[in-house]
Amino acid sequence: MSFRFFRFFRRSRKTASASIRSKQPTEEITSKNSTNSSEASAYRYEGNRRYHNRDDVAYILPNDEEENDRVHQQHWMMRVAFGGNFDSPIEEALAQGIEVLDSGCGPATWTLEMSEQYPNSNFHGTDISPRFPEAIKPSNCQFHLHNIIDPAPFPDNTFGYVHQRLLVLGLLATDWVKVIDDLLRVLKPGGWLELLEVSFPQLMNAGPKCTLLMHSVAKYAREKGLNPDIPHEMEDLMRKAGCVNLVFREVPIPIGHGGKLGDLLWDDFWDVFNTMHAIIVRYYPEMADQEYYTKFLSETKQECKEHGTYIRWYRCHGQKPETA
């Protein structure tokens, strides 16, 4: 059984990790300044949800098992919508064997699935929290506790491919340049960097309820120093960092209509906005009543069906020059 089973149902990281087959250990990349994943992190709790409570972490979503479940299902949705786990022209290299970094890997759904699909390549995931499996995992898959606003714990020119996604609500606007610069540092000349992000402010065919919710998140993000417009800027940031052969792709995903894909995005939307209830109440106090808010969300789904609403998702990949 593999992580492809997430297409049928959602489950916790503990259960999912146990399904990953064990392999014989292989040689690991020597890392510098890596942190043992058993070290405790500081958390805060709101209701029954767990969040980071660190001054050096901008991420505003939870980091608990319920959030892991959401991210697992979200992974399958994105893979279907984009037609695969990556756009970079690296299929042959992955099959032959390269070093791969998944920056900000979260519960590592992408990392684990890719490590099974390409057993000759070695995969390294980094994240601020130990949300990834630490014991039962493929032997070509290693994880490191690391805050990506700090220099990555790897030597220069280590990886043939670097992947990072969905940090629009996790990185301060002022951090993006240095993060991308550091990802290029650890990328080998000729290697590929790929980013994937979602746009909150810019929707397709949105009605007033969906617009209210998405614009509230974007407003809150800006107040926290985040940049909700980063999906539209990442191509330019990668170019300024030195990437060449850039390809930028937009994929609109239907929300609450259009079949299974739209249902999955609605599930994701529902989970996110239930989590962000307190944020919406900041701007619309009448939403404080839970029954009222739940009804509003349900009406939002119907509105999205009637309007044919889509949320825009973006992938951008580029190459580190061979002469770098």
TrEMBL record:
| Keywords, comma-separated and alphabetical | Methyltransferase, S-adenosyl-L-methionine, Transferase
Is the keyword Transferase assigned to this protein? yes
BP term (GO), one: methylation
Q: Does the keyword Lipoprotein apply?
A: no
Which Pfam families does this one have?
Methyltransf_25
Q: Which domain of life is it from?
A: Eukaryota
Q: Where is the Methyltransferase domain?
A: 100-191
Which molecular function GO terms apply here? methyltransferase activity
What are the Polar residues biased-composition ranges?
31-40
Query: Where is the region Disordered?
Result: 17-40
PANTHER family membership? METHYLTRANSFERASE, METHYLTRANSFERASE DOMAIN-CONTAINING PROTEIN-RELATED
Annotated protein name in UniProt: Methyltransferase domain-containing protein
Q: Which organism is it from?
A: Lichtheimia ornata
